[in-house]
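Render this sequence as a predicted structure.
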Amino acid sequence: MKILLVYPHYPDTFWSFRYALKFIDRKASFPPLGLLTVAAMLPGDWEKRLVDMNVHSLGDADLEWADYVFISAMTIQRESAQEVIASCRRLGVKSVAGGPLFTACHDEFPEVDHLVLGEAELTLPPFLADLCYGKARPVYADNRRADITKTVIPLWNLIDVRNYAAMNIQYCRGCPFDCEFCDITALLGKKPRSKRLVQLLAELDSLYVSGWRGAVFFVDDNFIGDKGKLKREVLPALIGWMQAKGHPFYFYTEASIDLADDGQLMALMVRAGFEEVFIGIETPHEGGLVESGKVQNRNRDLLASVKCIQRAGLQVHGGFIVGFDSDSADIFDRQIRFIQESGIVTAMVGVLIALRGTRLYQRLLREGRLLGNATGNNTAIALNFIPRMELRELVSGYQTILGTIYSPKNYYRRVISLLKEYRPTHPGKFHLQQGYVGALFKSILFLGVLGMERLHFWKLFFWSLARRPRQFPLAITYAIYGFHFRKIAEKICENGYAKRI
């Protein structure tokens, strides 16, 4: 058979980094790891092609080539996924869909010929078996949790790694916490499941052989879900692998704030090559943490925890949310103050949304406050529920946060604050990937000469050269990120939901 795997377009958000990617001549942040893994599960004698719509356009000729089109998407890619499905129907090409969007909202896609829901390790094999006998059913679903010690290595040869800013791998699935607004536990469970060490090292070997050098994102929902195994087995092995290979990668991942409580774990992560960690901080307001069930963030000094992680040698990226029922009018100033004082440069602030499958969705449904399904883009200000706070006040306050924290003055102040706290002790080196040297000269032109932030850019430029020369590449990287964040923030503030209500 001829199988076309399609990854729908990802809209412009903070996470797309689309404006920053232009500086390094890359087309997308990450490849579609799920589809590459699914491709490796298909029969070896089938022809396979992959179109990542964030890298290449999808034409009718691509679809007409295929016997079946496999589509995987997250909720935020809904609009593009619907367009792909419609094109398949128009051309008479059979479609197969799976992934988070379709697993959570399968009833909304009657046009899809075959829905393969849940974890592919469980539902894809029976679908393929039936397909070979010409009796594939419309829906394949399994609520069990897959044994990921049997998960295959992604089929990297379907992509050109040079199109991407970073590669991604998965070590574990699931999260021990069950925050009300998060759909991870519904999709992947509360009990963390991890791959065998030999699998992890084999995947790193496969990336190394592919020629990749640079950033690798561990896409785990909570990398530190099983701290004991990490400290006892995984991180020591990663340290040895990186040393043997000459430190070809540097890593980043997602974790919970209790990482700050384990100095040994942080030290091992840094030695293994981890440089960044995304943490869901959500709110400095204890009431919001109680309401959302964010137990790991409660009864602690969040600011001190962030500083602790930074001083250990890990840059902290933070997720923040406004729109909780318990939020009062001062939440916007409190969020701004916390973000500025913490030195969290990459502060992803969004408005609360109720995703299907979450406890929040169910609660709002019971309360009669649900307005529909979420877009998955929490920066679009398209609320799918009735908030307690007056809507205009919420939207205006959110826009004020973005306009304030991503103004050049405040943004560059946070970069310098981070560089003062951040103490990189890892033995790795900055990798000058293709396009990164050019990024320096582009940043000088577009940020230092033409940009509205030029005074702040040059202050950071010379400050980092004089005070933190080893971190100079990081300073330039954050300057480029700032350009992207400000563009997105400007769009939100100019075209926000407030103008459409």
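Summary. The two ends are 49 Å apart (CA to CA). The CA atoms of residues 313 and 424 lie 4 Å apart.
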